[in-house]
Amino acid sequence: MTLLVNLPTSFGAHLPRCVAALLVAGAVTAAQASPADYRCDNGQLLNATMTPRDAKLKLDGQEYQLKRVRDRADARFVNAAGVTLTLAKSQAELARKDQPTLTCKKVVASLEPEVLNGGGPRKPPAGETASR
Q: Residue 39's Cα: distance from chain center in Å?
């Protein structure tokens, strides 16, 4: 069965441009950086800003630039210095050469103890920034 739709000439003439504009807008949105904070099992805060292709990390005054590599279902980012970030659901695992692997859980600001107890949003320690 074929369904034919008659569009007014003015709309029909602009439809391809509208669709193209929506596709471009979606691609730009997808490429934007997505910041997230992770609380590690040693108490440190890992700040991560990720795009589909790379990640920028801040941890304990150190900054790392990583590139995404193909992996099973997990998101995995690596760099030449031996740093690997693996993301699975709300958990992050950070492996650095000659250092113990850190397991970190995503921080959800509205579920932080200070907020749940009515104390307002958690203020990050000096030298750390909260992501939005």
A: 15
